[in-house]
């Protein structure tokens, strides 16, 4: 079997379906808003281009494309038509080598005045220094489509999952959707005018959403800065749902004042469509969601039979307040070679849609060779309810200091999924972070069986996941943790937390445990344990909990007959994606898992391999790159 075939295997060993075909186009339109003769009433040729992308979106037919020349386009692109087949797609492309930016924002460069009508002092409280606050009225003409994100709370119509920020007791979802950027940096929104007295680099919006008050970081004046505000809900979204065979390539999309899901309304939206390709793009600065790629809302009607099959490839998705990629329902969704970073700054982790990637009911999903890093008050990849035959392989999850649960989460999932060849590093705990030392010293007393925060891989009310050849380092809680919810009915029954197979992984410095099984109906073998605390393999139920080690699980359960305890030093740099590793003891080779014969870098494995994601583990020394994107 070729190497490509191993990489393309799903959890059950079947092949991932690739529908993509080489593209040829019957007609090419051009857009160039810098050209003197650009005209939306013209033919859209190279010699006489359209001025807006929206004009091209209104006329493109199956088998046609538009090439967009360099420039900044302040519009929401609304495709009217989709393609009809893999050979007859509609394509939106940046001209090769040119920088195309589509923005849902405007620049406020005049009409500023000193703020008035409000007091920075509350009941005579003394105001320190001399804060300089500026105001700008937001006239309706700034919002061309009638949507003013500064007049609407960030919470959407479905409040069934609304929770408050437990640290600040602050109803964060009542903030407005509009964002303000000064010299490219997002300002913090405050809820009361007087908070501007203590908060530089912040803004406050009046109740009607039509007057903005800003304090600059340097307490300077508006003329010294470039000030930009979001004016649109989304930046690329079809006019009607269910369009298919659309490609978007090489474009930067930014600045969307969208609301907290659900519905999942992304800065870039497939709008319940199918067979999209989103590649080589930059998608950033969304108030909530970067890309929505599913059925948008659990209250939406069932999608057509031909649904999803999207390819999201080689993008940089960043600076999204709630979620980078969201998909309610998907089939054969391919997410590969992306960087997903700086997600979660809205801190709405208890609204249950906050993660780098959040999918529901994913069938046959392939999530591979992605970098997921710097999550802020949220988790990494969250598979929520009814996911089956998905493979999460050859990714790097790193720098998540305040997770609600962990880097990878399975929730309410009943059928087989596979997690292999990932590096998971530096996973912290949100509410327990200040107690980390206490927990480490007294884990036998303070161990919460639910164990939600700071895990490498977490299962909540799920069954049947195989976890193979991963490296999990520096987890505040455990490398793997499972917790059953027996009366949560999904697919006709409650969860059992059974049939988890944890094979050939390396657990390093997992500060509470390496593995926490909810019960004994699971399996361990071929794993390596390095710098873990006593009782690093726990069986949580029934009471009393059992806190065991390698020798005791061999003796009592016939687990880990090929497992080992080793000595090593391992460190990962999240910015450069370089790993430093020094193996100080022998590590035995183990039998490869039947559906995993590649490593994280694309190297082939034979019938035997070393634990962890690197086939050449014992030959590695010093610092080397583990970036898995676009490997052979």
Structural summary, described in words:
By secondary structure, this protein is mainly β. It is 5% helix and 36% strand. Among the domains are: 117 residues, Immunoglobulin-like (Sandwich); 269 residues, Single-stranded right-handed beta-helix, Pectin lyase-like (Pectate Lyase C-like), CATH 2.160.20. The protein has a 13-stranded parallel sheet, covered by helices on one side. Strand 12 and strand 13 form a beta hairpin. The two termini are 15 Å apart. About 3% of the residues have low confidence.
Largest sheet: 13 strands, parallel
What is the CATH topology of the domain at 364-632? Pectate Lyase C-like
CATH superfamily of the domain at 364-632: Single-stranded right-handed beta-helix, Pectin lyase-like
Cα separation of the termini: 15 Å
User: Percentage of helical residues?
Assistant: under 10%
Computed structural class: mainly beta
Tally of DSSP helical segments? 5
Question: What is the top-level CATH class of the domain at 364-632?
Answer: Mainly Beta
Whole-angstrom Rg = 26 Å
The number of distinct β-strands equals: 51
Assembly context of the chains: single chain
Kindly estimate the percentage of residues that lie in beta strands according to DSSP. Answer: 35-45%
- The residue ranges in which pLDDT falls below 50 over 5 or more consecutive positions are 164-169, 435-447
CATH architecture annotation name of the domain at 364-632? 3 Solenoid
Overall pLDDT confidence: 90
Query: How would you sum up the global shape?
Result: globular
């Amino acid at each position: 079997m070729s190497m490509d075939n191993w990489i393309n295997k799903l959890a059950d060993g079947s092949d991932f379906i690739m529908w993509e075909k080489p593209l040829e186009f019957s007609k090419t339109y051009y857009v160039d808003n810098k050209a003197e003769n650009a005209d939306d009433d013209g033919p859209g040729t190279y010699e006489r281009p359209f001025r807006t992308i929206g004009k091209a979106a209104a006329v493109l037919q199956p088998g046609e494309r538009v090439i967009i020349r360099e420039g900044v386009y302040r519009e929401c692109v609304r495709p009217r038509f989709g393609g009809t087949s893999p050979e007859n797609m509609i394509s939106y492309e940046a001209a090769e080598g040119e920088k195309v930016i589509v923005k849902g924002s405007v620049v406020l460069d005049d009409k500023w005045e000193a703020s008035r009508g409000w007091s920075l002092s509350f009941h005579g409280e003394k105001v320190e220094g001399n804060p300089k606050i500026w105001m700008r009225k937001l006239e309706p003409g700034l919002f061309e489509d009638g949507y003013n994100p500064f007049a609407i709370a960030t919470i959407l119509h479905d409040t069934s999952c609304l929770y408050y920020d437990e640290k600040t007791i602050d109803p964060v979802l009542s903030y407005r959707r509009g964002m303000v950027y000064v010299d490219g940096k997002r300002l913090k929104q405050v809820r009361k005018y007087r908070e501007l007295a203590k908060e530089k680099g912040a803004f406050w919006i009046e109740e009607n959403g039509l007057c903005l008050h800003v304090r600059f970081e340097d307490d300077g004046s508006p003329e010294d800065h470039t000030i930009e505000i979001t004016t649109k809900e989304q930046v690329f979204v079809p006019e009607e749902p269910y369009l298919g065979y659309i490609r978007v390539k090489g474009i930067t999309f930014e600045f969307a004042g969208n609301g907290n899901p659900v519905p999942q309304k992304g800065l870039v939206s497939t709008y319940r469509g199918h067979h999209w390709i989103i590649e080589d793009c930059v998608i950033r600065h969304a108030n909530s969601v970067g890309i929505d790629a599913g059925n948008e809302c659990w209250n939406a009607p069932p999608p057509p039979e031909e649904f999803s099959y999207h390819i999201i490839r080689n993008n940089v998705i960043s600076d999204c307040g709630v979620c980078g990629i969201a998909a309610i329902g998907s089939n054969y969704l391919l997410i590969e070679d992306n960087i997903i970073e700086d997600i979660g700054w809205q801190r709405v982790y208890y609204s249950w849609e906050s993660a780098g990637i959040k999918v529901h009911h994913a069938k046959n999903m392939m999530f591979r060779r992605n970098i997921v890093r710097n999550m802020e008050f949220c988790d990494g990849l969250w598979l929520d309810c009814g996911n089956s035959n998905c493979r999460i392989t050859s990714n790097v999850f790193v720098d998540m200091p305040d997770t609600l649960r962990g880097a990878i989460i399975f929730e309410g999932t009943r059928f087989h999924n596979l997690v292999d060849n990932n590096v998971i590093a530096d996973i912290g705990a949100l509410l327990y972070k200040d107690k980390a030392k206490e927990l480490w010293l007294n884990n036998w007393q303070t161990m919460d069986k639910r164990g939600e925060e700071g895990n490498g891989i977490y299962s909540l009310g799920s069954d049947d996941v195989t976890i193979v050849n991963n490296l999990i380092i520096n987890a505040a809680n455990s490398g793997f943790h499972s917790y059953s919810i027996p009366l949560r009915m999904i697919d006709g029954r409650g969860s059992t937390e059974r049939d988890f197979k944890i094979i050939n992984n390396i657990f390093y410095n997992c500060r509470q445990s390496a593995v926490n099984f909810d019960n004994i109906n699971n399996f361990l073998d071929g794993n390596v344990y390095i710098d873990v605390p006593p009782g690093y393999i726990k069986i949580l139920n029934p009471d009393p909990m059992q806190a065991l080690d390698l020798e005791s699980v061999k003796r009592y359960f016939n687990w880990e007959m090929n497992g080992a305890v080793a000595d090593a030093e391992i460190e990962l740099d999240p910015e450069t994606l370089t790993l430093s590793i020094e193996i100080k003891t022998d590590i035995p080779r183990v039998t490869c898992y039947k559906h995993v014969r590649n490593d994280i870098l694309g190297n082939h494995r034979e019938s035997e391999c070393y634990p962890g994601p690197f086939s050449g583990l014992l030959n590695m020394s010093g610092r080397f790159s583990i970036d898995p994107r676009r490997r052979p």
